[in-house]
Design goal:
mainly beta; Porin; 14-stranded antiparallel beta barrel; disordered N terminus
C-alpha cells in the first residue's frame, strides 16, 4: 500500500510541476546523459530521457521514474553586419513521468526545448529583435517484442512562436503542430545494438501572424514542416565502457536538408556508480528558416563538444552535462550550455 501511495503522490507532484512549469529555456535535449554523449544515445538510452532520445528504450525500464532537467546557458555572438550580443538564461526545462504497465512502458513529458532571445548590444532594439520559442508535450509508449527487439511510438504536440523586427519581418508568427515518432532498438549481439527513429511534424494548425517578406503566415509555416530519420549503432565494449554513433537526416518541404553526426562514449570510473561521458556532434544549417536570416547562410556548420558525469544510486540518479559550441563558417558563437538531470526511481 505504501508503494502505491508513493506512486500516486509522485504522479500528482508531476502534474503540479507540469502546470507551473511555464518558464522558457533553450535546452535542446532532455536528459544530461544524452547530452554528455553528444546526442549519440538512441541505442543506449534506458531511463526516462528515452521519451526524447528513443521511445523504444522505454521498454527497458522496469520501475516508475520521474525525470526533471534544469538548464543554464551563457554565451557571446560575434556575427556579420555588426550584429553582436551576449546572453544568459536558466530554467526548469523539462519534466517527465515514466510508468511501466504489464508489457508496455508509458511516458509523458512537458518540455520547453528551444528559446533564443537576442539582446543586441551594438544595434538598437528598434532595428533588430529576434525571439524564437518552442514548447511541446510528448506522450509515448515502448514495448519489448522479443529478447532482441524493442519498439516505441510517440505523439507530440508542439507550440511554436517567432517574433522579428528587422528588414522584411514585422510582428509575431505562431502555430501549433502535431508530430509522430516511430522507433526501434534491435540487439544484434550481447554487445552490439542498432536503432532507428522516424519523425514527422504532421499538419500545422492554429496558424497566426503577419506577412514575412510577402509570404503569408501559412506559407512560412508550411516551409518549416519536415521529416527526419535517425540511424544509430551502440557498442558495449565491456561492463564499464560503451560507445555509440548516430546519423540524423532531416528534410524540409522547401527541398532543403540537414545531416547531423553524433559521436559519444561512456566510461564508469566506479562500475554502475560514477560515469565519465564525452561526445561530439556537427550540425549543418542549410535551411534559412531555422535560424535568423541575418546570421544564416547556406552551408553554415556548428560543431559541439560535450562532456558529463554523475552519480547513480539505487533510488536516485544525478547527472550533469556541459556543451560547448565551437566556430561556424559565417560567425563566431561562443556558447556554454549546462543540463542538470534529477532522476527519481520508485
Amino acid at each position: 500500500m505504501f508503494y502505491f501511495s508513493k506512486i500516486k503522490y509522485s504522479c500528482f507532484l508531476s502534474l503540479i510541476l507540469i502546470v507551473y512549469s511555464v518558464s522558457r529555456c533553450s535546452a535542446l535535449y532532455i536528459g544530461a546523459k544524452g547530452l554528455g554523449m553528444g546526442g549519440a544515445f538512441s541505442t543506449l538510452v534506458s531511463d526516462g530521457s528515452a521519451i526524447y532520445w528513443n521511445p523504444a528504450g522505454l521498454a527497458k525500464i522496469k520501475q516508475p521514474q520521474i525525470l526533471m532537467d534544469l538548464f543554464y546557458t551563457t554565451g557571446q555572438f560575434r556575427g556579420i553586419s555588426d550584429i553582436n550580443y551576449d546572453y544568459r538564461y536558466g530554467s526548469l526545462s523539462s519534466i517527465a513521468l515514466v510508468y511501466p504497465f504489464n508489457k508496455f512502458t508509458f511516458g509523458l513529458s512537458y518540455n520547453s526545448p528551444i528559446i533564443n532571445i537576442l539582446e543586441i548590444q551594438n544595434i538598437p532594439k528598434s532595428d533588430y529583435y529576434h525571439f524564437k520559442e518552442k514548447k511541446n508535450i510528448i506522450l509515448c509508449s515502448g514495448v519489448q517484442i522479443s529478447q532482441k527487439l524493442f519498439i516505441g511510438i510517440a505523439g507530440l504536440l508542439n507550440f511554436n512562436k517567432w517574433s522579428h523586427n528587422t528588414t522584411g519581418f514585422t510582428g509575431p508568427l505562431y502555430w501549433k503542430e502535431l508530430g509522430f515518432n516511430l522507433s526501434t532498438v534491435y540487439r544484434l549481439t550481447s554487445k552490439i545494438s542498432i536503432a532507428s527513429l522516424f519523425y514527422t511534424t504532421g499538419i500545422p494548425f492554429s496558424i497566426g501572424g503577419v506577412e514575412w517578406n510577402s509570404q503569408s503566415a501559412k506559407e512560412r509555416v508550411d516551409k518549416m514542416q519536415h521529416i527526419s530519420l535517425t540511424i544509430g549503432s551502440g557498442f558495449n565494449v565491456s561492463k564499464i565502457f560503451s560507445t555509440e554513433i548516430d546519423m540524423k537526416y532531416t528534410s524540409w518541404r522547401n527541398n532543403e536538408y540537414n545531416l547531423q553526426l553524433n559521436l559519444g562514449m561512456e566510461y564508469f570510473l566506479i562500475e554502475n556508480y560514477i560515469p565519465i561521458r564525452l561526445g561530439y556532434y556537427n550540425v549543418s544549417h542549410p535551411n534559412p528558416y531555422m535560424v535568423p536570416l541575418a546570421i544564416s547562410n547556406t552551408g553554415d556548420n556548428d560543431h559541439f563538444i560535450t562532456m558529463g558525469t554523475g552519480i547513480n544510486l539505487r533510488k536516485y540518479t544525478l547527472d550533469i552535462a556541459i556543451e560547448s559550441n565551437c566556430i561556424n563558417k559565417y560567425s563566431s558563437r561562443n556558447e556554454l550550455n549546462l543540463i542538470l538531470s534529477n532522476l527519481y526511481k520508485f
